[in-house]
Amino acid sequence: METILGIDLGTTNSEVAYIRDGKVFVIEKDGRKLLPSVVGIDPQGKLLVGYPAKNQAVLFPERTIKSVKRLMGTDQKITLGDSSYSPSEISAMILRTLRSYAEEALGETFKKVVITVPAFFNDTQREATRLAGELAGLDVVRIINEPTAASLTYNSDTTGCETLLIYDLGGGTFDVSIVKIEDGVIEVLSSHGDTHLGGDDFDKLLFDNVCDTFKKKNKLDLRDSLTSSSRVLQAVEKAKIQLSSEPFATIKEEFIAEKGGEKLHLEIEISRDDYEEIITPLIEKTITCVGDALHDAKVQTSEIDKVVLVGGSSRTPLVQNMLANKIGKTVHGEVDPDLCVAMGAAVQGGLITGDNVGQILIDITPHTLGVSCLSVGSFGYETLQFSPIITRNTPVPCSRSEVYYTRSDNQESVITRVYQGESRDLDLDTQIGEFWLKGLSKVPAGNEIVCKFDLNADGILHVTATERSTGLSGNVTVENALAKQDAAVNDKFRKHLESFFEGSQSHPSNVSGDVIDIDSDEQNTKTNTEIQKKLSEAIKARYPDAGKVLRKSYEMAGKVTSEDDENEIQQLTVKLSEAMNSNNDDNVKKFTVQLEDLLFYLEDSV
Ligand code: AMP
Description:
By secondary structure, the chain is an alpha+beta fold. It has 4 domains: about 1-155 and about 335-355 and about 485-520, Nucleotidyltransferase, domain 5 (2-Layer Sandwich); about 160-335, Nucleotidyltransferase, domain 5 (2-Layer Sandwich), CATH 3.30.420.40; about 370-485, Substrate Binding Domain Of DNAk, Chain A, domain 1 (Sandwich); about 545-605. The protein is about 35% helix and about 30% strand. Strands 1, 2, 3, 4, 10 and 11 form a 6-stranded mixed sheet that branches. A 5-stranded mixed sheet has the order 14-13-12-17-18, with helices on both faces. Strands 19, 20, 22, 23 and 27 form a 5-stranded antiparallel sheet that branches. Helix 7 runs parallel beside helix 8, helix 10 (about 490-500) runs antiparallel to helix 13 and helix 13 packs parallel to helix 15 (about 585-605). The protein starts with a strand and ends with a helix. The structure holds adenosine monophosphate (AMP). Adenosine monophosphate (AMP) binds near residues 170 and 315.
């Protein structure tokens, strides 16, 4: 059977994938799966595509073209060195390169291809893409929408009906689509976006911030030199990516400039908090588009079954948090957001040739992993709660770290308790390890302790806690961190929920606090139980509808047979309880409706 390649012809990067024996593979070249969508001609007149072209872009901008996708369907001529080309011709060079990578890797020739385009591409832009394929010697059997392709990676053998929200934030563009899948037929209900918003804009903001700080200190603007600017730009992109998994990143470039014969170095540390503050307005823009797309599709947030992440910038934790808040659902990034569209195109190819395409299997962590910490809530009391570090459904291997702070002046030790579970309430999670870090510096409260989780594909979890100022560290290894929680946890949940109605025990805790202390003194939290009990009574009186739904969820949780359903009930119940605790009326309403809908839907199945 002839294999049909799947190609994501992206603005920033392009990828090629194929199906073999019902499984999807992405072609690698020199260990890399992404090909930068950059084309250039070197000074000797040799064609460069991908990394070599990207690398020469700063030195020879007149011989290099980036983001040609933005020009598809226009008459614009692109001059590279002595010749000029159409956008389709430039795109053909990228497609021809991808085709040669596939042929090199698999030792066979390929002719047929499925190519993806943004949902908003008009007929002229689609035709220009088809022409690019033909110029690359390919037979374009189908052009499909990128959100459709992304949906296919999550639903290749779907029967029944699902509504997906595809959030695609790349380097230079943002798209959000609402997609409905009914008995295998995929329909894009609405698409919104911004063709000039993406990770490059995050880089630009961070770049300006770094240049301003440098200028303040050295009275010299790095933006005035092309070489310095390009070095800073590369360094900030690296730091930005680091901040997706770590709480701090250092931008360090030696001999970045010269002033009065003196060589100047750049060394600036950025915290994730500061970075997030800088990019919040841009992410808010994308969230507004999400609202518009939902509105146009006439779909309520509660009707969205899955939120799928696409594009490298969707790995930004703030993106995932703001999106999850807007939709009230965890977001899915199990399939690599960079490769999702190419893989979906390959699935489409497989469906055309009648290949038996199975579900795309990816190693993910089935449970959230984190530590216990003290949080100061809006009522001023402290609660001991679960602080997630690696969230459920993250592909493994992975590494993430977070910063916590000591609670007391001169605190000499902290205990790191490692938990697995989905609830803020530690009672509902399972402790899987602990260790002490002793001999901390005698400093005021707020000493920074960085907690790092390294999870490998075999489920071995290394947890390290490090005092930032001295490097003093302690660690623990958990052998089987991917293994399922024992059934006792579900029992614990039921008992816990029961106690919530009886008012005999603390209920899911308030989590609105922003000062987090590593657990140093559990005694303190117990003294808060009385306050929490009273609070619980008041909450029950204030939200009778939510109370009813919670009671029903308790009854149902004992009856559902699927672990996923049980988890979903559990998560929504905790969210609703948290919203009630923090008097967040909007969220109480939202989660009451969501939980009600879920229970209504599940009622038929129990
Ligand atoms: P794409 O256009 O989908 O290839 O996405 C490229 C953009 O994703 C670039 O701006 C990258 O800097 C950004 N990116 C890649 N990985 C990450 C990450 N881990 N966190 C944040 N941004 C990332």
